Amino acid sequence: MSDFKAQLNTRVAEINGDLEKVFQQNLDTPEVIIEAMKYSLFAGGKRLRPILMMETCRALEGDLNIIRPLAMGIEMIHTYSLIHDDLPAMDNDDLRRGKPTNHKVYGDAMAILAGDALLNYAVETMLQGTQGLSGTALTNYISAMRCIMGASGILGMVGGQVADMISEDRVISLDEMDYIHLHKTAALLEACVQSGCIIAEAEPATQGRLISYSHRIGLAFQIVDDILDIEGNVEDLGKPIGSDEKNHKSTFVSLYGLEASKIKVAELEKEALEMLKPIGERTTFLQELASYICQRRK
């Protein structure tokens, strides 16, 4: 196993441990909602978003203890979006991460509530992270949290999801495609990097380079998803392939073809790595993470 893969596995284990702690407190609520929330949250996700946030902070020598609740929050937000994305009213998928989707196990109503609960609990968890902070540290924390919530809402992920839904059954333009990719997927990844920069008080030039990096890997991540929806298999992806075609969605692949899509991903990977070079060796893990995202097969 390469050093990067070993480090990545260690980071994933750390994130999982932190998420477990979030659910160890006494929660006076019907047990079924906690089961449904944890079913999807601990279904084997790659934890790319919290890792990206914490590794950005680490590379800039920021305080990981301060940013940790924000990292937990963004993973819960991501998971809630997947639960809702799989619902019959949305993509109507039966598998996610190799397991039956939340609504297939708990029913549509409970799946909706589990998603709602994860979103709300994400905000509660992030707000708890303000305890003990004051002055600049508190101001920066609130600024990072505002960034995360903005990227999650109508100006980010939700807006991108809406644009994706209303694009069904028609051929869309490149501008519309870029809007969908940059908002539905890239916005949260960009918020992870920006939050890490805010907490670590990065210099403007450094922050600009890291945000440009996140912009490119976010776009590449979605194009790779489009490619894998054609070339992937259920065993590796843990979810059905051909969902975009089933739902009559235009994708980068359907607009420009498979080979052009692969070339675009390679270009984005190269550009992302170029953004990090001036920052130096501190970004080695982030460089390898970019290549991992762009070259992934699942």
Topology:
Elements: H1 3-22, H2 31-41, H3 48-59, H4 64-85, E1 95-96, E2 99-100, H5 102-106, H6 108-128, H7 135-152, H8 157-166, H9 174-200, H10 204-231, H11 234-237, H12 243-246, H13 252-256, H14 258-276, H15 284-295
Antiparallel strand pairs: 1-2
Helix pairs in contact: 2-6, 3-4, 3-9, 4-6, 4-7, 4-9, 7-9, 8-9, 9-10, 10-14, 10-15, 14-15
Task: Provide a concise account of the structure shown.
The protein is mainly alpha-helical and 298 residues long. It is built from 15 helices and two strands.
What does this structure look like?
The protein starts with a helix and ends with a helix. The mean pLDDT is 92. The protein is mainly α. It has a two-stranded antiparallel ribbon with strand order 1-2. Helix 4 (64-85) runs parallel beside helix 7 and helix 14 packs antiparallel against helix 15 (284-295). The chain is built from 15 helices and 2 strands. Helices cover 73% and strands 1% of the residues. It has a single domain (3-295), classed as Farnesyl Diphosphate Synthase (Orthogonal Bundle), CATH 1.10.600. It is globular and about 50 Å long.
| Helical content band | over 70%
Structural class determined from secondary elements? mainly alpha
Order of neighbouring strands in the sheet with most strands: 1-2
Radius of gyration: 19 Å
Average pLDDT, rounded to a whole number, is: 92
CATH homologous superfamily heading: Farnesyl Diphosphate Synthase
State the distance separating the first and last CA atoms: 18 Å
Inertia-based shape: globular
Total number of helical segments? 15
Largest sheet: 2 strands, antiparallel
How many independent structural domains?
Answer: 1
Secondary-structure element pattern, one letter each:
HHHHEEHHHHHHHHHHH
**CATH architecture term:** Orthogonal Bundle
